Structures are given as C-alpha cells and as structure tokens.
C-alpha cells in the first residue's frame, strides 16, 4: 500500500510531469526512486492524502466559502429549484472592455448563482481540463445529435442519488477537492531521484 501511495504522490509531482512529459504521452509512466527516505515518505503521504480527496469526492464537505445565492422567489419544489440544464460562468468586463468569463461566479440555473469560487480550485486539472469545468460540462442536459439520446444529469441526481441537489453539491465538493489537491501538490518536495531513467 505504501508503494502505491508513493506512486500516486509521485505522479502528481509537477517536477515529475515536466521531466517525463515526452514519455508520458507515449508509454507507461516510469517510476523512479527518490534519493532520500524522507522524500519517499513525503510522496507516500501525499499519495495517501490525494487518494482520500479523489476517492471521496462525492462525500467530502462542500466548500463553505462559496456563496450560494437564491432569490426568495425560488421554488420550494427541489426538482425545480435545483434543476440544471447548463452551468455557465458569470461575465465581467476585461481590460479591453469586452465581456470575459468570470470564473469566480457560476450561474447554476435561473434561481441559483454561485459566487466567490476560489480561482485556485481551477488549478486541479483532470485530463487536460479543470475538474470544475468537467463537472459543469457533465452535470447538464445534452442530446446526442446522431442518436437523439438525451443525457439528463437531473435524472441521475433524483433516480440514482436520491437528491435533486446532487449536481450543485458535487460542484461545491469538487471546489474542496481542487483546493485540497493543489495544497498537497504544492507541498511536494523537489524531485531528486537516484538514477535518471533513460528516455
């Protein structure tokens, strides 16, 4: 288990990803040994911490710093109140005067707006995209052009999870996961390995 944690921690190291960037897109990752036991322990602990956040993303606490704004006129019926079609970023004026995305604000639906989203939460990248943007993309209603099949996140929320609020809470939980992930990643030691693996 400790070796698995070491590997998971190592794979999140920015030094590791930079050093082996050419290889990572073409072959299985090489797992070098670090020079000191202290570094091994640091990467192992980081791997355990990261696994906790990544495996438990659906049950970690919603980030308390994000303001969930709802008008007094929001419907009491949870299925209407929390129904999501497509989350969108808020807008602000850029330096050029043009409207640009404000990632600190997400319009969840016509009733709910999320504000004060920490921008650092977007630094947690999964498959080349911020995890929060994956949530925004997946927790929506989309129809496949070819098959005509509709994928409705609201049905998953109510029928599988038993909670119409699931897409909203998932977003708030992934804010927590993103911030905690980056805290661990930014605390990793510099990658100092025993023998440089051949490319």
Characterize the main sheet.
Answer: 4 strands, antiparallel
Rg, alpha carbons: 20 Å
Specify the overall morphology. elongated
Query: Helix count?
Result: 8
Overall SS class: alpha+beta
Unreliable segments of 5+ consecutive residues: none
Distance between the termini: 28 Å
What is the averaged pLDDT score? 92
The tally of beta strands, per DSSP, is 8
Helix % is 40-55%
State the strand order across the main sheet. Answer: 1-4-3-2
Helix/strand order: HHHHEHEEEEEHEEHH
What does this molecule look like?
The protein has 199 residues and is α+β, with helices and mostly antiparallel strands. It has a domain at 67-172. It has helices at residues 2-11, 14-19, 21-24, 37-55, 78-81, 131-138, 153-160, 166-186, and strands at residues 67-69, 88-93, 99-107, 113-115, 125-126, 129-130, 141-143, 150-152. The strands form three sheets. Strands 1-4-3-2 form a four-stranded antiparallel sheet, with no helix packed on it. A two-stranded antiparallel ribbon has the order 5-6. The radius of gyration is 20 Å and the shape is elongated.
